[in-house]
Amino acid sequence: MKRHAIILAAGKGTRMRTKLPKCAFPILKKPMIDYIVENVEKIDVDTVVTVVGHQKHVIQEVLDTRTLYAVQAEQLGTGHAALAAKTLLKDEEGTTLILLGDMPLIDKKTLQSIYEVHENSDQVLTVVTANFEAPHGYGRIIRDDYGKITAIVEEKNCTEAQRKITEINTGLYAVDNKRLFEALDKVEKDPIKGEYYLTDIVKIMNEDHPVGTFTIRENHRVMGVNDLYAVSQAEKYLRDEINKDLMLNGVSMINPETITIGHNVQIEGNVTLLPNTTITGESIIKEGAVIGPNTEIHNGIIHESVEVKHSLIYDSEVHERTTVGPFAHLRNRANIGKDNRIGNFVEVKKSTTGHDTKASHLAYIGDTTTGSHVNFGCGSITVNYDGRDKHRTSIGDDVFIGCNTNLIAPITIEDNVFIAAGSTVTDNIPSGSLAIARNRQINKADYAKNLIKPKLKNNIIK
Ligand code: UD1
Ligand code: CA
């Protein structure tokens, strides 16, 4: 039996009050729609169609070629959105799973079981429902005296009594593909909201086909994210779930409620995470690392036994036993070697270092290749930008860079070089040299009195 999926993601998300189209809005720094497609990809589905419309390029940029696209030019409701997939799917046999692009917590297991329940039944449509203590905002499931589903009523259309129903429509449906498009053609505009409701297919199909329900128990899996408060709730669920899983696999967390780990982050056992740490993107943290407190890592690869405290690491890699921070900033493909020390207020951008290199305090290292056993003195700076272009600095092995040195790029410092403190280095330094690039000091004897102002006594100058 063939399996297809339609993901509805054309809506604006008015209740979000943000500029991004809702389904591209991030949950733990990853677009909502990405979670959904990732889970659909984990199961065997023949055709996946995402319905896009409002700011469609944003959604398409996230998903790229991972799904097919149907365009809903005007957002006239979920029924109208599903119909947009007709041209792509109408001739297909099999089951179509309909998903909403605003249910980021849905998982593979739930999706798999929806297909299975549907395929093992004689139903043409299986509506996935859940029982919510606070059903506000969701469509309610209406059943007849025999318990059979007869309709879904949107909250706006509910009578007082219907509003009290706690069984809700999750927005997930498994449906016979051909029957789906026949039913969608019959959906009429709702007079109250002026939209074509997908939920109307229940009533339409009920006329001549068996329609049933599948009730799921893990309610949070199907929460719809409609506003920024719901974003925070979804993040909380996801955070707790990820943290628990990590802790059970040997990752120690101090104050886990303040620690946020993204969905695709890999953390090995015997790692310690301290409070207020956020690790997202495609980050990898290897065994023995200690990260935090107050640290943010996005797309960072942190090797064995590295320590990072009070620091920011973006798109960068740190090798074994190096210590980073407090208050360091590594970004844009910084690649720090083994046993380095990147200390207080040091920024490293698009640069590599060999092993046992140190920049302990107040340094900027940008567009630089540095060897091993190099010491950047306090306040040393690679001057990589001339106001128009960026230039590279190359530093060999065993180089001592005195405090407050400016290395004006492009420049090459060869091996075994010693640079005197306070130098502004504009020329390459050959191997083995001592470079001093500053004025020699002059001491003028007995001259200071001419410069030091006389002391004030009782405000009278003597
Ligand atoms: C929908 C359901 C409701 C259900 C709830 C579950 C309908 C009419 N209502 O309500 O029964 O309880 O989800 O979370 O289906 N979309 C489009 N084009 C449109 C309108 C919406 O693609 O013209 C997309 C949106 O991008 C969104 C999804 O469909 O991803 C759901 O739309 P939304 O407005 O959030 O529906 P709800 O009011 O939450
Ligand atoms: Ca919704």
Written account of the structure:
This protein has 9 helices and 36 strands. The strands form 6 sheets. The protein has a 19-stranded parallel beta sheet that branches. Strand 8 and strand 9 (149-153) form a beta hairpin. The radius of gyration is 31 Å and the shape is elongated. It starts with a strand and ends in a 27-residue tail after the last strand. The relative contact order is 0.07. The model has no long low-confidence stretch (mean pLDDT 96). Calcium ion is lined by residues 100, 102, 224, 226.
How would you characterize the largest beta sheet?
Answer: 19 strands, parallel
Low-confidence stretches: none
Q: Beta-strand level of the residues, as a percent range?
A: 25-35%
Bound molecules: uridine-diphosphate-N-acetylglucosamine, calcium ion
Structural class from helices and strands? alpha/beta
Radius of gyration: 31 Å
Helicity level, as a percent range? 10-25%
Shape descriptor: elongated
- Helices, by number, come to 9
